[in-house]
Amino acid sequence: MADGSTIGRNRLDGKVAIVTGGGIGMGAATARVMAGYGARVVVADLNAEAGHSTIQSIIATGAEAHFVQCNVADEEQVKALVAETVSTFGRLDCAVNNAAITPDSLPIAEADMAAWDRVIDIDLRSVMLCMKYEIRQMLAQGGGGAVVNIGSVSSVRPQPGNSAYVAAKHGVVGLTKTGSLEYAPQGIRVNAVLPGAIDTPMLRGALDQTGYTEADFAPALSLFGRFGRPEEVGEASAWLCSDAASYITGHSLAVEAGYLTR
Ligand SMILES: NC(=O)c1ccc[n+]([C@@H]2O[C@H](COP(=O)([O-])OP(=O)(O)OC[C@H]3O[C@@H](n4cnc5c(N)ncnc54)[C@H](O)[C@@H]3O)[C@@H](O)[C@H]2O)c1
Q: Closest residue (by CA) to atom 36 of ligand 1?
């Protein structure tokens, strides 16, 4: 801004964004938040019904959104996602690589390697694939852009029984740092957001399996004694994608109500 002010730089007006796993949960909330800040959003998800529902809720507000059915673990589909984004909205400025699945819960010595590989494919390899084609497009536009990879508190604090998820989420931080080093010269920022316990279908599914409730779990997982709202993570990702975060790259921003401080 001409006067050096940062006011308004958190807006995403004119930017085109991809949000993967945008059908439900945090991805859907992130897509809505980013559209609210002015972005034109491409929602990518395996689940077409959920993805269409997210874009309909965005279009109802007067913003622009487009759905692409995509398995983020499939290289050709990720390549096609970026191509369809460009053919629909003309360019790509930012991306939130959010899609992931929950882990199995076997200890290492009992691991089912097919299930392990599946988590690595969807939670880690997908982030690599998305970065590959998103950054390629940003470079083709002459550089500039922002990528946000969704990790987890499991990116820095392991949990027993979740080796694939923990390894994948640690890997997401490694990929984020590598990308930040490789593409800083071209003005492409690469950051990670590490959510804590956020109230989404993924978390509710995990609770249902154990029979525990939010009241049982939340005090141990949050200094606020409650689960996070998906929008609270979406705000962090949107801000990292915006020009307000212009001096931030290679960073992992925990959105976990202080869980990691204990
Ligand atoms: N909910 C939490 O407490 C929590 C905590 C830490 C990190 N996270 C991370 O946040 C992100 C979002 O989690 P969530 O809780 O919203 O999950 P969710 O299960 O509620 O939603 C995930 C979305 O991703 C989609 N998806 C799954 N596999 C896909 C694939 N192969 N290709 C395309 N789309 C696919 C699903 O259809 C769904 O719409 C994930 O990366 C997750 O690991 C969640």
A: 21
